[in-house]
What we know:
By secondary structure, this protein is α/β, with parallel strands linked by helices. The chain folds into 3 domains: 94 residues, Conserved hypothetical protein from pyrococcus furiosus pfu- 392566-001, ParB domain, CATH 3.90.1530.30; 105 residues, Orthogonal Bundle (Arc Repressor Mutant, subunit A), CATH 1.10.10.2830; 50 residues, no CATH class. It is 54% helix and 12% strand. The chain has a 5-stranded mixed β-sheet. A hairpin with a 5-residue loop joins β6 and β7. The longest helix is centred in the last third of the chain and has 21 residues. It is elongated, with a radius of gyration of 29 Å.
Amino acid sequence: xxxxxxxxxxxxxxxxxxxxxxxxxxxxxxxxxxxxxxxxxxxxxxxxxxxxxxxxxxxxxxxxxxxxxxxxxxxxxxxxxxxxxxxxxxxxxxxxxxxxxxxxxxxxxxxxxxxxxxxxxxxxxxxxxxxxxxxxxxxxxxxxxxxxxxxxxxxxxxxxxxxxxxxxxxxxxxxxxxxxxxxxxxxxxxxxxxxxxxxxxxxxxxxxxxxxxxxxxxxxxxxxxxxxxxxxxxxxxxxxxxxxxxxxxxxxxxxxxxxxxxxxxxxxxxxxxxxxxxxxxxxxxxxxxxxxxxxxxxxxxxx
Length: 303
């Protein structure tokens, strides 16, 4: 590894590896870090390791943990966990909680680990990114992890894309899933529908129609293409309906514009006047403050 420090931009583009390798060790933390071996891996007692308080995942499948524990009994730990050192003989997990928990079940006393230096925000960021890079995450878990990185690590979408190795469009597609109704989000989480189904449903503005298509997709086990076709048909029908809706004739439109101008002049503010071909509509008079509202009410002789 080169002695020169990488600039900030290059660090952003290297995901979890950059975060783990380039976290600076400063002040007292230098004094408590163990001496680094050539491999950079240490055998640490399981009793000296605390779980990660920033762990994004709250549920670990018991059967899967038992299977991993059995694998560890036979083959040992293939991929070391990553920890930060808090004090002599005191460590905290950054990533690898499944391996840590399975090692306990397997009866291990020690576990191989990389030791890093990280503050709380770096801990959260590392845990989230390591979590995102797991292959078995569903789309909603990824979306929530992206949201936490933006909100809790103060990242912008461009920076987030660099951190996780995704372009801004991909990141945005995941974040949009969080705008779906809870019922659909639960279906994504439970793998009743895929990311493709969800992305199609996002394009339906009306929630009731959105849920209707979702229900049909689940009950009839529709493919992504069929759901996309349903959404497209719905949106095209809406557009045609809007096109057929008759507008005001030119003379009536001119009259409404003149009335709108007179109202704006009378109230000293922009006035919105809407009317349909059946002479039904509304008038909107905006105000900018309490005093502005009182001024309008005085004009209307309401106070």
